[in-house]
């Protein structure tokens, strides 16, 4: 019989206990679960190569979901409330819960109208950095177009 070793995952300590009477004034405690519920956002572009206003990170090949890793200021994505740490659950009729990064990018690039279902899930998003390190592969549809129609 061969010897084999299995390493245990690093133990994560639970967060510090915050007494109920101190929770409403404590920045580390927020009992508003609405921010974590799925929400829908519709982004329309005039042309397929117009900017989406966000980058994505993750994918099935990285054993994690797809997350918004950056939102550019003054874009529709920013105005509609997308934020870093949002997990992309669905775009149009395609589930993004078990999709390759490249396939996700193709869907983003090939549609002028995108109906996104996202949920804020910072814990899962932070895990993508633990598994892979700093960002290396992300997607931005095109150069950012300002409100005046010029590239920046």
Automatic annotation (TrEMBL):
Coiled coil: none annotated. CDD domains: PDZ_PDZD11-like. Residues 1-31 are annotated as: Disordered. SUPFAM superfamilies: PDZ domain-like. Gene3D superfamilies: 2.30.42.10. Residues 40-110 form the PDZ domain. Residues 22-31 have a biased composition (Polar residues). This is PDZ domain-containing protein.
């Amino acid at each position: 019989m061969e010897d084999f070793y299995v390493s245990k995952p690093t133990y994560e300590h639970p967060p510090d206990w915050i007494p109920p009477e101190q929770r409403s004034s404590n920045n580390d405690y927020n009992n508003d679960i609405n921010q974590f519920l799925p929400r829908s956002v519709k982004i329309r572009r005039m042309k397929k190569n117009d900017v989406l206003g966000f980058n994505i990170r993750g994918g099935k090949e990285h054993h994690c979901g797809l997350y918004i890793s950056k939102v550019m200021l003054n874009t529709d994505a920013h105005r509609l409330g997308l934020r870093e740490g949002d997990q992309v659950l669905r775009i149009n009729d395609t589930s993004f819960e078990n999709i390759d990064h490249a396939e996700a990018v193709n869907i983003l690039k090939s549609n002028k109208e995108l109906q996104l279902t996202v949920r804020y899930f910072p814990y899962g998003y932070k895990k993508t950095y633990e598994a892979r390190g700093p960002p290396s592969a992300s997607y931005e549809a095109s150069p950012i177009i300002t409100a005046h129609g010029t590239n920046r």
